[in-house]
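LAB NOTEBOOK - FOLDING QUEUE
OPERATOR: T.R.
BATCH SIZE: 2
PURPOSE: Compare the predicted structure-token outputs for two unrelated chains run back to back under identical settings.
PRIORITY: normal
REVIEWER: second-year student, initials M.K.

ITEM 1
FIELD SEQUENCE / FIELD STRUCTURE:
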Amino acid sequence: MVLISFGRLSSFLTYLAKTAAVLQVCFLILLFFLPQVPLLLFYMATVITILDLLEEIFLIMILPQWETDVKGLYWVLRGKKIPGS
């Protein structure tokens, strides 16, 4: 869908994507070092990843042209970016 809309892959780098990546890494590291599977962390990572993917789909539908470093759906809808970026 991104390739059709913009002709290249997305690189939004949203806060949800960063949070999902951190949770996934924490889960994978703890998976190898704890005697039991950290299910709560797994479910948290799964929910945040699903929300991130939904946010990215909405961003693709909303944005008229390709953009990089979009902070999130909230900032796109408000028409603002975070100061300093």
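ITEM 2
FIELD SEQUENCE / FIELD STRUCTURE:
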Amino acid sequence: MIKELLKGDFMDCRRVKEICMQEGHSKAEVKKAKSLEGIKTVNVTTSDGRQMWLWFDPDQIWEKYSERERN
């Protein structure tokens, strides 16, 4: 469910949860799916201190960026 949303990119976790809940999934279901699908989290902080938690699929990210290096 979450992998399809991410489509090989990073996405704000709040947006992922919002979309999943609009599709009828509970917070518990989203949390479980995140774990089962191997979705990881990274915290990004800007120079002025703003923070954002991004979710990503390591396999999809690897595919995306390793492909760029080959070209």
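REVIEWER COMMENT (ITEM 2): The first helix runs from residue 2 to 6.
FOLLOW-UP: none requested
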